[in-house]
Write a structure and sequence with these properties.
With 250 residues, the protein is α/β, with parallel strands linked by helices. The protein is built from ten helices and ten strands. Helix 3 (66-87) runs parallel beside helix 4 (106-119).
Length: 250
Amino acid sequence: MTKVAVAGGTGFAGRRVTELIREAGGTPVVLARSTGFDLTGGDGLDEALRGVSTIIDVSNTVTFTAKKSIAFFETVTRNLLTAAARAGVAHFVALSIVGIDRVPLGYYAGKLRQEELVLSGPVPCSVLRATQFYEFADRTLLQQPGPFTLVPKMLCQPIAAREVAGALVELASGAPAGRVPDIAGPDQHTMPDMVRRLARARGARRLVIPFRVPGAAGKAALSGGLVPDQAGPRGVLSFEDWLQTDARAS
């Protein structure tokens, strides 16, 4: 592995991707605001991508509206693809989410637009959809201080973030493959149960209150819209094992 740019490389998934690139003997180029790059503006990308063979895009935004999500992912993806084409980047790897075409959430509309642009873009690509990370339960717990936590009712097949990062780095090491089979964890869970188990493992006294996401999105999330509907790679780290290792290190 040579020089690999990581868009969103200081974020949740990006940090793990960057670490694995270094472990594989590659040189990561982190594209993030904290390293001087505004992906929505595109300034400095041409210089940053000089000599880069591959881009791994794990950029992200926090929004619940389709308009804002589409605007973000469309702008960032176009900027990255345009700069990548000018720089002669040979492979563009993008992380997406399982079920974004089955669960009509505003945020997912932006991810769908990202996929469209990457798959039809000027740079040979690979797109990997992953299920929710185990760490999503951790973020849900920590972001709601107080005696109770509201957790969306959803059926999921979660996976450790580091296993998804490993899959992305492996894809980046190979030839562009377009949309590849979805990756997921070894078992299915409900999100409220995961948060309860995490709270117990942390010794946190917290009342977990499940709630149903309104409308068609909530119905789809409950009925399995966020789990893979075809065969594909599966992680090996169970949620129980994650609770004993990664969760305690968080």
